[in-house]
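step=encode ok
step=design start
structure_in=
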């Protein structure tokens, strides 16, 4: 997945440190102010022509599509202005998220027409023409006859430009941040689902499928020997019966890995008691839940605790562990503790980083407290998202 965001770019404040009167920053500001005349003229003409043309022809079938295309072009002009601001003024505003893609014409049209980033860019182009003429004229005159005060004049004018860039060309912080997070989370969900499908396919191919193929071959041989050597055929059928039991057990384990029946039938508390019984250290489970969360959240909580208990078995060298589950407002809280050696980290190679990503994909949080020598406490927080009431 790709976005227009640059993680290295953060909003910068106006220069406040002492600087040489005719240093590099001053000359960059002068170049910006002198280039304002051309850029503001282009922006003004583009905004007037694209908006008036689209609105004027809106009574026809081509008007609104032209307006939408004009708004798309405004986004490109906004990108160039942000780049100019970054290069010459040090105003590093983040790039807005790209518009979501739609398969149909009407969804694309509606999304383009209500794009706030493009409309703010058009407003930026409309209001800046007088300012561009003013800054070009004042800066040019100062270069010729007001040389001693030029650094102060250019800084004052450039600070006003910085404010316009931040105010009109920066994305809507909270909304854009949320869009970017959701796009990133969607990629995590897709990758996780793909990995789970590959795991299921691999388990079926290497486990139950291979065993069933061998079973079919064994029964075929037994059929051939049924008349000639009944005793050998009976032994082969008996062996095949054992293989059937093993195949059924493997299929049950695989189904339990997809979604355990005890979770569906009895809820999170009994399901966690079941999974804790398979841990190599004694585990106590305390679940204080009067209601059940949404099925998806319940499943994520189950597999989160399951993976954490696997870490306890494999890495902790613990003598005991505990699992606590409770509801806090609109959040589902999970906590797994053990008295092991500690030292667990999100980047420690125990799968905690991937688990944190999967929780983040549903607005969840994973916190690890594991000093060297222990104990280790891993707290997971998930949105509650209660089940719809039955009708």
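sequence_out=
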């Amino acid at each position: 997945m790709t976005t227009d965001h640059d993680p290295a770019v953060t909003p910068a404040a106006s220069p406040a440190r002492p600087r040489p009167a005719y240093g590099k920053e001053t000359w960059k500001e002068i170049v910006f102010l002198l280039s304002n005349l051309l850029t503001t003229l282009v922006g003004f003409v583009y905004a007037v022509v694209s908006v008036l043309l689209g609105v004027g022809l809106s009574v026809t079938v081509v008007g609104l599509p032209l307006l939408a295309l004009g708004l798309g072009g405004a986004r490109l002009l906004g990108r160039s202005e942000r780049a100019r601001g970054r290069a010459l003024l040090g105003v590093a505003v983040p790039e807005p998220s790209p518009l979501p893609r739609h398969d149909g014409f009407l969804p694309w049209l509606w999304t383009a027409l209500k794009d706030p980033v493009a409309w703010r860019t058009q407003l930026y182009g409309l209001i800046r023409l007088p300012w561009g003429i003013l800054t070009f004229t004042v800066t040019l005159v100062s270069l010729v006859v007001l040389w001693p005060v030029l650094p102060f004049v250019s800084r004052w004018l450039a600070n006003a430009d910085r404010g316009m860039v931040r105010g009109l060309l920066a994305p809507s912080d909270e909304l854009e941040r949320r869009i970017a997070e959701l796009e990133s989370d969607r990629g995590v969900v897709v990758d996780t689902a793909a990995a789970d499908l590959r795991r299921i396919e691999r388990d079926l191919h290497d486990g139950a499928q291979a065993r069933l193929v061998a079973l079919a071959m064994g029964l075929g041989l037994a059929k051939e020997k049924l008349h000639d050597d009944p005793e050998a055929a009976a032994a082969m059928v008996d062996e095949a019966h054992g293989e059937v039991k093993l195949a059924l057990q493997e299929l049950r384990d695989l189904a339990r890995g997809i979604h355990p029946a005890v979770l569906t039938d009895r809820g999170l508390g009994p399901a966690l008691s079941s999974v804790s019984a398979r841990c190599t250290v004694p585990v106590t489970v305390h679940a204080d839940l009067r209601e059940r969360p949404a099925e998806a959240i319940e499943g994520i909580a189950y597999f989160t605790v399951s993976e954490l208990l696997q870490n306890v078995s494999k890495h902790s060298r613990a003598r005991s562990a505990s699992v606590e589950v409770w509801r806090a407002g609109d959040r589902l809280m999970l906590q797994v503790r053990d008295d092991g050696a500690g030292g667990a980290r999100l980047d420690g190679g125990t799968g905690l980083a991937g688990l944190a990503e999967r929780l983040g994909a549903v607005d969840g949080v994973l916190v690890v407290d594991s000093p060297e020598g222990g104990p280790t406490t891993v707290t997971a927080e998930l949105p509650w998202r209660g089940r719809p009431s039955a009708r």
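step=design ok
step=annotate ok -> Residues 188 and 357 are 7 Å apart (CA to CA).
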